[in-house]
Design brief:
By secondary structure, this protein is of the alpha/beta class. It folds into two domains: 105 residues, Serine Threonine Protein Phosphatase 5, Tetratricopeptide repeat (Alpha Horseshoe), CATH 1.25.40; 179 residues, Rossmann fold, CATH 3.40.50.1820.
Length: 290
């Protein structure tokens, strides 16, 4: 099972059946998978919520001390971890993590994969929050084989070990300025989750234009702030919106955006949460060709 589906299923179980069942469900699925910083975060938070103080501390120490994982400092302020706050082992983990975070923050920068023009059809893909460029490649690389040149942007804003978030949304425009943007016949901006918000915010700038946007699980609070302006901009281009019917955070925003546009394509996926659907490439192919 892929990580995003595992964590989304865990959240769904927590909402429907409580934290205890969610914790034991997650633990039952750990065999044969690589434990990432996000999975560890779910484990120690759920353990703490259930009052399993020792288990929570062991998960945290395994992540930070044994596996060299680190998190942004805000993670340790999570109210889920209340029972750990006065524990010395918790504080040691927090201090070690913050030291690594500060070191990583000094050396991180925006990553753009574009090197040269290889096609007349350009796709630029953005990851979401608590995400990275490697995950973007898994989502969008099929476009490179069927439709044109795919390039990726990774935010400079670090979230935790090997994961990033969007805080400085000017990064997309800065990257576009490094690409011979107007030399491409067709330009598509692809985003997942908060990456969609960066795309919409960037399109508010009159100097940035494209022919298509593909928004997967769009987390787009910017739309409520600049609704009328964005409706005018998006009304002139092709808009494809894909969202799972179990996506608790983004489904309403996806529907609202689609309802305001005359020619957008909204694809709603049954049984899918805030994650990459298994047949995503086929879904996008059909949307682009029909």
């Amino acid at each position: 099972m892929k990580e995003d589906k595992l964590l989304n299923d865990t959240l769904l179980i927590m909402e429907e059946n409580g934290t205890k069942e969610a914790y034991y469900y997650l633990k039952s699925k750990l065999c044969g998978i690589s434990l990432t910083g996000q999975i560890y975060n779910f484990l120690y938070c759920l353990a703490a919520l259930n009052g399993y103080k020792e288990e929570a501390l062991k998960w945290m120490e395994e992540a930070i001390i044994l596996n060299n994982i680190w998190y942004r400092p805000e993670v340790f302020l999570d109210k889920d971890l209340k029972i750990l706050k006065e524990n010395e082992r918790f504080r040691d983990c927090m201090k070690l993590s913050e030291k690594r975070y500060m070191a990583a923050k000094k050396r991180t920068d925006t990553v753009l994969t574009w090197k040269q023009k290889n096609s007349d059809f350009l796709f630029v893909a953005l990851h979401g929050n608590q995400d990275n460029m490697i995950n973007s490649m898994e989502k969008w690389e099929f476009l490179n084989y069927h439709y044109g040149q795919v390039e990726y942007i990774q935010s400079k804003d670090i979230d935790s070990c090997d994961l990033y978030r969007w805080e400085d949304n000017s990064q997309l425009k800065t990257c576009i300025e490094k690409i011979p943007w107007d030399s491409y016949k067709e330009r598509t901006l692809c985003g997942f989750s908060a990456g969609c918000n960066v795309i919409l915010e960037t399109l508010l700038d009159e100097d940035v234009r494209c022919e298509r946007v593909i928004l997967l699980g769009p987390w787009i609070p910017i739309f409520e702030i600049h609704r009328e302006h964005l409706i005018k901009i998006l009304g002139k281009i092709e808009v494809i919106i894909v969202c799972g019917l179990n996506d608790r955070d983004c489904l309403d925003m996806a529907r609202e955006l689609n309802s305001c546009l005359d020619k957008s394509k909204l694809i709603l996926l049954d049984g899918v949460g805030h994650e990459l659907p298994g047949d995503f490439s086929q879904i996008i192919k059909e949307a682009m060709e029909n």
